[in-house]
């Protein structure tokens, strides 16, 4: 695409789950100058590392995906570090980007920034109507500061930055570490690992323990659809008003577990641990702005996305 021809693009988090698909799609669009800083060499929490990145890469555009993130358990265990590291990464990257005169800064925030009891479906204008769900509030608020900074910088400096709010992502290459993963990869791993470890003559069936009651609902977006939405915004959207990215599909955690159990062929018992937190009661987005402003609509049916994710885990982890 002519838009990307000759552009130098920094993709923070470009070696991660979502970032790897962003980089692939950039290359497919004809972008040949892509810089992916690696955390081992470039700690974006440190200002000197951010300044060195801009000095060495000289980007025309920054797509900021890097985050310290995890599921409910990780958020409960690391509220301070999640807040500080995400806040510092975003604030410093945007400030030095402004100083360096980058043409555009695309920031990816999080659905966790929305208030705990947001009316359904979540509309962008509801972002400031209350405090986020407590277990992930520090992470969500740190990411929401990207929106404050973006709007303030556009007002004072005319800095072109956009902030996108995607729902929970899933798909191949996701994080399947049970200590830090989100619900879909955690469930897939538990189901498939239990089958691979079970013995045909075992007296006891494997048990799948799931946090909470199963009553909360969530919306999920397939990772390749999310990557496409982010790049469409990079190409076509030049305002600082927040924009949701989602699929528009709502499913309860209980129904999600049943679907994954069926698709993985798990034959054991499902146990609900109601002593563990449910998180936010319901989540489903109004995605009309993304469709109207830059033509994004999610294209992957949920069951198809789950099948692809399950097959990827089987092929790459059950060796």
How are the elements arranged and paired?
Blueprint: E1 8-12, H1 17-28, E2 33-35, H2 47-57, E3 61-64, H3 72-77, H4 79-100, E4 104-108, H5 137-157, E5 161-166, E6 168-170, H6 183-197, E7 207-211, E8 217-218, E9 220-222, H7 223-236, E10 243-245, E11 251-252, H8 253-264, E12 269-273, H9 288-294, H10 302-317
Parallel strand pairs: 1-2, 1-3, 3-4, 4-5, 5-10, 6-9, 7-12
Antiparallel strand pairs: 8-11
CATH architecture of the domain at 2-168 and 222-246 and 281-299: 3-Layer(aba) Sandwich
> What top-tier CATH class of the domain at 2-168 and 222-246 and 281-299 fits best?
Alpha Beta
Q: Return residue spans where pLDDT drops below 50 for at least 5 consecutive residues.
A: none
For the sheet with most strands, the description reads: 6 strands, parallel
Beta-strand residue fraction: 5-15%
Tell me the strand order in the biggest sheet.
2-1-3-4-5-10
Structural class of the secondary structure composition?
alpha/beta
So how many helices?
10
Task: Explain this structure.
- The chain is globular.
- The longest helix has 22 residues.
- The chain has a six-stranded parallel β-sheet with strand order 2-1-3-4-5-10, sandwiched between helices. Strands 6-9 form a two-stranded parallel sheet. A two-stranded parallel sheet has the order 7-12.
- The chain is α/β, with parallel strands linked by helices and 319 residues long.
- It has a domain of 211 residues: NAD(P)-binding Rossmann-like Domain (Rossmann fold, 3-Layer(aba) Sandwich).
- Helices cover 43% and strands 14% of the residues.
- It has ten helices and twelve strands.
- 44% of the residues are buried.
- Helix 2 packs parallel to helix 4, helix 6 runs parallel beside helix 8 and helix 8 packs across helix 10.
């Amino acid at each position: 695409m002519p838009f990307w021809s000759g552009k130098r693009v920094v993709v923070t988090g470009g070696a991660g789950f979502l970032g790897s698909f962003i980089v692939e799609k950039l290359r497919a669009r004809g972008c040949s100058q892509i810089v992916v800083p690696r955390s081992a060499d470039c700690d974006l929490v440190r200002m000197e590392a951010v300044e060195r990145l801009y000095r060495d890469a000289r980007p025309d555009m920054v797509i900021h995906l890097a985050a310290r993130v995890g599921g409910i358990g990780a958020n409960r265990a690391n509220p301070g570090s999640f807040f500080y590291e995400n806040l510092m990464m975003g604030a410093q990257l945007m400030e030095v980007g402004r100083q360096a005169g980058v043409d555009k800064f695309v920031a990816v925030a999080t659905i966790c920034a929305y208030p705990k009891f947001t009316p359904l479906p979540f509309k962008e204008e509801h972002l400031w109507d209350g405090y986020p769900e407590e277990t992930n509030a520090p992470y969500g608020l740190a990411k929401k500061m990207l929106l404050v900074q973006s709007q303030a910088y556009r007002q004072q400096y005319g800095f072109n930055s956009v902030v996108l709010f995607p729902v929970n992502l899933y798909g191949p290459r996701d994080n399947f570490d049970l200590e830090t993963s989100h619900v879909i990869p955690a469930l897939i791993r538990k189901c498939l690992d239990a089958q691979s470890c079970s013995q045909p003559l075992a007296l006891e069936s494997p048990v799948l323990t799931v946090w909470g009651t199963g009553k909360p609902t969530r919306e999920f977006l397939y990772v390749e659809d999310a990557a496409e939405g982010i790049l469409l915004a990079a190409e076509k959207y030049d305002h600082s008003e927040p924009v949701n990215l989602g699929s528009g599909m709502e499913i309860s955690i209980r129904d999600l577990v049943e679907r994954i159990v069926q698709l993985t062929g798990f034959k054991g018992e499902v146990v609900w641990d109601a002593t563990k937190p449910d998180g936010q009661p319901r989540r489903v987005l109004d995605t009309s702005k993304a469709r109207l402003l830059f033509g994004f609509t999610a294209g992957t049916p949920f069951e198809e996305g789950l099948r692809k994710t399950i097959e990827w885990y089987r092929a790459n982890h059950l060796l």
